[in-house]
Amino acid sequence: MRQKRAKSYKKQMNVYHYTFKFREPYQVIVDNEIVSTCSKSSYDITKGLTRTIQAENKPMITQCCIQALYDTKNQDAINLAKKFERRKCNHREVIAPGECIKSIVDINGENKHRYVVATQDLDLRRKLRQIPGVPLIYMNRSVMVMEPLSDASSKYSEEWERKKLTGGLNDLKAGKIIENNENEEEEDEKEGAVPAKKKRKGPKGPNPLSVKKKKKGEPSANEVKEDSEKKHRRRRKHKKSDEKQEVAEGEGENNGSANKDGEEKGGDEENE
Hints:
The protein is α/β, with parallel strands linked by helices and 272 residues long. 53% of the residues lie in helices and 11% in strands.
């Protein structure tokens, strides 16, 4: 694959990825005609899809398409188709492969399941171009080619980019956050109801992680407070004047008796 073509394919897949929310591995729906074409030319369809999409992908085939291959009795093409994952189309009776693929891709005018379609059916590709966000792949001789963005896809992408760029600038309510409580209060005022008073929360406690842990053997903060309060509450008791005199007289009598005893002992020693 040439470098210029590879870059254009990469840009297209980026548009599908960001605008239409395609995700890897991309689901690729193949029809019976492209399988037959690849088997005749000995072209490896799995590697060709990987080179074209430039990302991980998962080839799938519907029951109606594989039944059309059974009708051709081309065993090589049948063996190749059996390697792909079977996509249930929920058709009780077999219908044309083109109608089958369109029914699973076109759901209410959009590619709901985000399929990449690989088909050789020109009428089917013409119908799918009207649906935004459908990558189309086909075989041109021995080269796998991805169609450029269709008019529907490019128009949708431009509108999406324009809304993303200018939506917030032109919207007057952009950037404003309206809480549910304010809306409820406005509705109550309109109805005439009295709005409920908001409860005020008290002061919060300290962060437990910022408080120092108590060491072993150290008193707690509450115990220290209690001891300090007790110390402040203690008052000295002053002795009364009468009690002081009695104590002084008692001490004087004791001193006098002690002196008498000393004199008597001294007199006895002199007599001897």
